[in-house]
Amino acid sequence: MIITIDGPMASGKSTVARLLAEQTKSFYINSGLLFRALAFLLLEKRVQPESILHDLPALTQFVKECLFYSYNPKTGPVVSYKNLIITPFLKTSAVSSAASILATESTVRQVFLTYQRTLAENHDVVADGRDCGTVVFPAASFKFFITAHVTVRAQRFQQDKERHNVALSLEESIALVHERDTRDSMRIYAPLKPSSDSCILDNSSLTIQETLDCILSLIDFQK
Q1: What DSSP element (H or E) covers 103?
Q2: Measured between alpha carbons, how far is 103 from 89 in angstroms, rounded to an integer?
Q3: CB neighbours of 159 closer than 8 A, spacing ≥ 6?
Q4: pLDDT confidence of residue 29
Q5: For the chain, domain boundaries
Q6: H or E, element range at 145
Q7: Which are the contacts of 174, defined by CB distance < 8 A and separation ≥ 6?
Q8: Count of other CB atoms within 10 angstroms of residue 121
Q9: CATH number belonging to domain 2-202
Q10: For residues 13 and 43, what is the distance between their CA atoms, to the nearest angstrom?
Q11: Are 70 and 80 spatial neighbours (Cβ–Cβ below 8 Å)?
C-alpha cells in the first residue's frame, strides 16, 4: 500500500506523514530531504553543479553511490553521504532555498523519482512531497493534498523559525511563503498541484492530531 501526502510549504504535511507512517507501520519517504541533501552537498562543494546537474547518468550514479536514505520509526528519516549522516544539516534556510531551486531541474527530479520508487519496492509506504501523488506514485492507494490559508502557513513558518532562533516578521514570512508557492506551482516539470483523485484537506483550523485523525478515518472508511 502506498499513501501520498502532498502540499505546499508549512502545511504540516511532513509531520502528518511521519505520524501516519508510525500509525500504519509503513516506511516513510520524505522526498524533500533528498533534494535538501543534494542542495547541501552542492553548497558544501562536495559535488560541482556544472559537472553533474544536467548529466542524467552521472547524477544517477552519484546518488546511487553516495546518498543513502533510511527510516526507523524511533529515529525518523536519515540521509547519509558516504556513510556520514548529514540529516542535521538539512534544515537551514540556505539549504531550503537551494533545494527549492534544484527541484525545478528536470534531471534532478527524474533521478529522485526513480530513487523513491526503488525505496518503495519492498514496503508499505507513506510518502510526502509536492508531486508524490501526481508524478512519483500516480497509482498510490490513497492520495491526500494538505493545504492551509497562506497567513496560517506563514505563522507556522514564523513559529518554526523562532524555535531555531531566527526572527521573522509575519510580513516577511508571508512573502517567503508566497515566493516558494509561486516557484513550486509555476515550475515546468512536476509543478505543485493536487492530483485529480486526491482528497484535499484544508487544515487551517485543525491541529496536527486532528489532521492525522481525519486521514486515518478516511483510509479506514475506504478499505
Answers
A1: none
A2: 18
A3: none
A4: 98
A5: 2-202
A6: strand 142-147
A7: 150, 151, 154
A8: 7
A9: 3.40.50.300
A10: 26
A11: yes
Written as one string, the DSSP assignment of 162-175 is HHTT----HHHHHH
Residues 6+ apart with CB under 8 A from 59: 52, 53, 107, 108, 111
pLDDT of the chain along its 223 residues, tens only? 999 999 999 999 999 999 999 999 999 999 999 999 999 999 998 888 777 888 999 999 999 999 999 999 988 999 999 999 999 999 888 998 899 889 889 999 999 999 999 999 989 999 999 999 999 999 999 999 999 999 999 999 999 999 989 999 999 999 999 999 999 999 888 899 999 999 999 999 999 999 999 999 999 866 5
For residue 87, how far is the Cα from the chain centroid? 14
Q: Give the C-alpha separation, 142 to 6, whole Å.
A: 11
What pLDDT is attached to residue 188?
87
Q: Which three cell numbers stand for residue 98?
A: 537551494
**Which grid cell sits at 185?**
506551482
Closest CA to 200 of 142, 125, 116: 142
The C-alpha cell that represents 128 in the structure block: 510526502
Question: What is the rounded CA–CA span in Å between residue 56 and residue 64?
Answer: 12
